[in-house]
Request: fold
Amino acid sequence: MRPGPSSVTRRRSAYSRSPYAVDMAQCFALLITPVAADDTRSDYSDTFRAIDVTAPALSVGELSTQRGDGVFESIGVIDGHPNEVEAHVQRLAHSAALCDLPAPNLPQWREAIAAAATHAPAGEAVIKLILSRGVEHGPAPTAWATVSPAADNSLVREKGVRVVTLDRGYDLEAGERAPWLLLGAKTLSYAVNMAALREARRRGADDAIFVTRDGFVLEAPTASLVIRTNGRFLTPSPSGGILHGTTQLSAYEFLTARGHEADYATLRLEDLQSADAAWLLSSIRLAAPITAVDDVEVPTDAALTRELNAFLLSPR
Amino acid sequence: MRPGPSSVTRRRSAYSRSPYAVDMAQCFALLITPVAADDTRSDYSDTFRAIDVTAPALSVGELSTQRGDGVFESIGVIDGHPNEVEAHVQRLAHSAALCDLPAPNLPQWREAIAAAATHAPAGEAVIKLILSRGVEHGPAPTAWATVSPAADNSLVREKGVRVVTLDRGYDLEAGERAPWLLLGAKTLSYAVNMAALREARRRGADDAIFVTRDGFVLEAPTASLVIRTNGRFLTPSPSGGILHGTTQLSAYEFLTARGHEADYATLRLEDLQSADAAWLLSSIRLAAPITAVDDVEVPTDAALTRELNAFLLSPR
Reply:
């Protein structure tokens, strides 16, 4: 491990942008009043309304803010088209169930996403969905969606990312054994994910890959991992321990349609280190080729990365 | 393990009150503009202002709400007197450092606490401090403090709590080995703590005690654990793995002043099960005697519990 950074470096890194950073100055937001899952009205448009994002919108009693108590999704939008909407709303529902939140009404969320998308700028944008347990002592969850321009990720898709591996503390079975650890839920409690990204930057890398205590690779703080070994594409099995990546699912569609073998597996750190190519996949940054693992250069496949990103940038 | 609960039970438990629940209807709040730690003005009163808690006060861009990215403290207030202020602000600073947040200006926080305390109702109240990384892309953290009446904990101090032990997934050294897990920081990412409390209630208990993968007891989701064995008081060593409890510190002052031996130790689950008394200690509920561990009744010491709570209810 390298020596620690100076306090100046640490201070600056506290405000590092994540690929999911929302630029509030160019943000549009909808405040959503969640309705019950069994509410079957034909039109949900009166359950959400545009809000002024430069003005306060949330109570200090919000449990999202007091305890990171809620779930979220980030959806990539290309020229006004939100991608993988179904995978995202299904995962939102899955996360909500794991957190004992009332089941989201998916038609309502789909309609809110469509409404938000009409406010997306041309090019790449991001829609963020947040479902919070609501205000303390309140009877109902609160929810909102934001849409804002995405950061320019074209360079990182081409040049790739240097990653460090970071101990996640858990063993591979922790998630299934202890569901209260919420490892399969995309919760708002992301402080550890953000701390891992800061640690990666302190070590001179761009991103991190979490490794279990027993030496298995899991995922990045905000992305899925896919490796290629002997022509086979592999990603860690989505279990109680990691999220099922929506972009990884799309990439697997692309790969299998082209005749590649693409599977789920239990992957050891050595499998990543010896892969003949590896990527981090996420909804906004899309496919970022991994160029180094713990400061050791690893092979990449520029042609395939380009084709994969072209696919991921197309409407789905 | 018991069979799972019905979905009705699960739904209701989603809104269970925690001992730290804030009743917004009777809440007073100060919005704080954090100043640099080396700002040495003599009066910070113009850096915070009362806000209407029934009105929105926070941006949807708040990183506290988007990622549980910030730190907090809950301070017990008795008849307008905030207890253990110094221990709380010091822990706030410690948590901020672990999270690479700018160091809080402690004179500013002490002054804000004093100002909030003047709005505390008679009897027991709670001041909650929140320091968030701020609005996305913003240059500065945001902060606020709330004060509200505490729930009536007199019964639980007398009757005690039934606890279940829950696997925390980590081993005892995870916190020191992997500081990015933020195990020693009181972050806003409390979804797992809340999920553990819901799991405890599903199992018919009142609270939970986290146990490491390798069988050591740690702490409760919102409280410290103290046991008595052969007349000696013991609490798990505050390391990278757990928070150092402010109320536990006060309890140790009380105990040592009365000639008791009170130490830090590495405690196995068996030590809890065979203790001759055990308590959960926290700032608002104070000393709650443990009456059962995983459905096995354990001995209590009603006289000592009463004296300890009388001390903890006195101004400190």
